[in-house]
Design a protein that fits this description.
The complex is a heterodimer of chains A (about 270) and B (about 220).
Chain A (H helix, E strand, L loop, with lengths): L3 E10 L2 E11 L4 E5 L6 H8 L7 E6 L2 E2 L8 H7 L3 E4 L11 H16 L6 H29 L15 H13 L5 E5 L10 H13 L4 E4 L3 H7 L2 E6 L2 E7 H6 L4 H8 L2
Parallel strand pairs in A: 3-8, 3-9, 6-7, 7-8
Antiparallel strand pairs in A: 1-2, 1-4, 4-5, 9-10
Helix pairs in contact in A: 3-4, 3-5
Chain B lengths: L2 H7 L1 H29 L4 H16 L2 H16 L10 H28 L2 H9 L4 H31 L11 H12 L3 H29 L5
Helix pairs in contact in B: 2-3, 2-5, 2-8, 3-5, 4-5, 5-7, 6-7, 7-9, 8-9
Classes of the chains: A alpha/beta (about 270), B mainly alpha (about 220).
């Protein structure tokens, strides 16, 4: 079974069907690009995968676990399940009142606090808890420093997001998503908020992550970008997967008329 | 009586004015947040109730509201005001001001909450933060930064509004000035009162501009 398996995912709004039974799969360590014109349902797909919205039907299976079991999720259940995914937003959405470092560590530290259970009562247990938390915090901080170093942001650790360039903000957002060790990284239009000159930068970042073994799903309408970074293309139109295949094959020999037209329109 | 004597004679009134001011701020700022939650509630009747509350508080004179609070124990519960204790006058003034200002602050909070992009809430959600933490750690600090200028406006108005307590007989600085003016047959006490209100507001403006400067470093460009 594939690492990420999406089967017949459906999502409708009042008078609009965004996802009309989307199915595809992504292998571990693979970079998959979801392409298609705007309004094809690409962003809705990401939002449903990350449980920012509940899909109306279909299955999401990640690393052998069916996440969609039992119908619509409560907020609490969704909070657990979405942690398998690390979403990098189109406009990054860094927290402007936190430094870059705090943006990265915040969620992990809060999570550690929730995870460390107090066994027993009294001052001793409290001390034990505090000690554990301090250890965990040191770990998280070290991991954040490593991530920031990897993304060339060590000197910006104490800066606020407003003072960062677009590319730096994006890398900070990637680091923030990675601190929770998601099984798969999701990117929403990673090139759209960047200067065209900076797209080379994000290509390198994604290639780096791939060589570290990260699995990524990238939603984009930038065909040149998709061709450069992806192993696999999933072409979506009208809320359905029209064609799916290896990147080089898709670009050299598209099978469907729709995909041919789409590629030629660039 | 020279100018300094006049100022010295108004010290008790000034103390009352400052007390009304700070107590009103301490109570109405958090109370306004609660009213705002009510106004933004997803439960329709709750939202409607707080919407009505805000419109009444903003749509009727504060002076009249002070009268209502002051006489409420008698007209609503038949308690003679002399049984309410000697501090009732001051307490009712603080209640009246706090409730009135909470309505204004609620609307300011609401505009501030709406000004934070939806993406911030979603980013917090995607990182697995709880709803409470998302509001207090992510949304509220940005709200406070966005609403600072509007809050400054409201606080400055409050400094001047404290003189309305005069209307229900609370002896505050304006009362003291009026009393002195009659006694001395002079306009000088009024000038002194004006000077104090103005100085007070200069201090408020200074403090608020310092806070604004501190938050500017993380302003969204």
């Amino acid at each position: 079974m594939a690492f990420l398996e999406v089967k017949g995912l459906k999502k409708s709004y009042k008078d609009f069907t965004a996802l009309n039974g989307i199915s595809f799969s992504v292998e571990k360590g693979e970079v998959a690009a979801v392409i298609g014109s705007s309004g094809a349902g690409k962003t809705t797909l990401l939002r449903c995968l990350d449980f920012l919205e509940n899909a109306d039907g279909g299955e999401i299976i990640l690393d052998g676990k069916t996440l969609t079991e039992g119908g619509p999720l409560s907020e609490r259940e969704a909070r657990e399940k979405r942690l398998g995914f690390g979403l990098v937003f189109q406009s990054f959405n860094l927290f402007p009142h936190f430094t870059v470092k705090k943006n990265v560590v915040y969620s992990a530290i809060k999570r550690a606090k929730e995870d460390i259970a107090v066994s027993g009562k009294g001052i001793k247990a409290l001390k034990e808890k505090r000690k554990k938390l301090a250890e965990k915090k040191a770990e998280i901080n070290a991991e954040a420093d490593a991530l920031l170093g990897k993304f060339g942001l060590s000197e910006k650790a104490d800066a606020y997001p407003a003072s960062l360039s677009g590319g730096q903000q994006q890398r900070a957002a990637i680091a923030r998503a990675m601190i929770l060790r998601p099984k798969i990284l999701l990117f929403d239009e990673p090139t759209s908020a960047l200067d065209p000159a900076l797209t080379g930068e994000i290509v390198n970042v994604i290639k780096d992550l791939k060589s570290d073994g990260a699995t990524m799903l990238i939603v984009t309408h930038d065909m040149a970008f998709a061709e450069k970074v992806s192993d696999k293309i999933i072409f979506v139109s009208d809320g359905k997967v029209v064609e799916e295949g290896r990147t080089e094959e898709i670009f050299s020999a598209p099978k469907t008329e729709e995909l041919k037209n789409f590629i030629n329109s660039f | 009586m020279n100018f300094w004597d006049i100022l010295w004679n108004m010290r008790n009134g000034l103390f009352t004015t400052v007390s009304i001011f700070f107590l009103t701020l301490i109570i109405s700022l958090p109370l306004g947040l609660l009213v705002c939650f009510g106004r933004m509630s997803r439960i329709k009747p709750v939202a409607a109730f707080f919407g009505f509350f805000i419109s009444v508080m903003r749509g009727t004179p504060l002076m009249l509201q002070l009268f209502v609070v002051y006489f409420l124990p008698f007209y609503a519960f038949g308690i003679k005001l002399k049984f309410m204790g000697e501090n009732w006058l001051f307490i009712s003034v603080v209640i009246g001001f706090s409730v009135n200002y909470s309505a204004y602050f609620a609307e300011i909070y609401r505009s501030g909450i709406n000004s934070v992009p939806e993406g911030q809430r979603e980013a917090a959600k995607a990182l697995g933060l709880t709803r409470g933490r998302t509001f207090f750690a992510i949304i509220l600090p940005q709200v406070l930064r966005n609403i600072l200028p509007a809050v400054t406006n409201e606080i400055i108005t409050l400094v001047k509004d404290t003189s309305l307590a005069f209307a229900i007989g609370q002896a505050e600085m304006f009362t003291a000035a009026k009393r002195l003016a009659s006694k001395e047959v002079s306009m000088l006490p009024y000038a002194a009162a004006a000077l104090i209100y103005y100085a007070f507001n200069l201090a408020v403006a200074y403090v608020m501009s310092r806070i604004e400067k501190r938050t500017r470093r993380y302003a969204v460009r």
